[in-house]
Amino acid sequence: QVQLVESGGGLVQPGGSLRLSCAASGRNFSATNMAWYRRAPGKEREFVAISGFLGTTSNNQAVKGRFTISRDNAKNTLYLQMNSLKPEDTAIYYCNEMEFWGQGTQVTVSS
């Protein structure tokens, strides 16, 4: 059984930074693709970034240059470093592995 537990969300001012973490268990973390998604109020869930098990990464155009996805295979942990945050980044952020999802962590960008 795969378990994904996100942490690191919170309230931050525009232009600020946060780092999200996703602790994974139950599968060979280093052999799977891991991704971040988000759901803003009143909107559909959208893709944010993916970390491929071969080392490749890809981001949503809306976060390019501001968000960086990374992983620590020794710690079974996925990260999302978010810089230059904007109010439109306000959302619940979810960690994803195949068909499994975490419970989400709230990110609010507001002055």
Q: Would you summarize the structure shown here?
A:
By secondary structure, the chain is mainly beta. The protein is built from no helices and eleven strands. 0% of the residues lie in helices and 52% in strands.
Defining key terms:
mainly beta; 4-stranded antiparallel β-sheet; 52% strand; 111 residues
Helix content: under 10%
| Low-pLDDT regions | none
- How many H/I helical runs? 0
**Beta strand count:** 11
Average pLDDT over all residues: 95
Radius of gyration: 13 Å
| Strand proportion | over 45%
Molecular shape: globular
Distance between the termini: 40 Å
Pattern of helices and strands? EEEEEEEEEEE
Commentary on this structure:
This protein is an all-beta fold and 111 residues long. It is built from no helices and eleven strands. The chain has strands at residues 3-7, 10-12, 18-25, 34-39, 45-51, 57-59, 67-72, 77-82, 91-97, 100-101, 105-109. The strands form two sheets. Strands 2, 4, 5, 6, 9, 10 and 11 form a seven-stranded mixed β-sheet that branches. The mean pLDDT is 95.
Topology:
Layout (H helix, E strand, L loop, with lengths): L2 E5 L2 E3 L5 E8 L8 E6 L5 E7 L5 E3 L7 E6 L4 E6 L8 E7 L2 E2 L3 E5 L2
Parallel strand pairs: 2-11
Antiparallel strand pairs: 1-3, 3-8, 4-5, 4-9, 5-6, 7-8, 9-10, 9-11
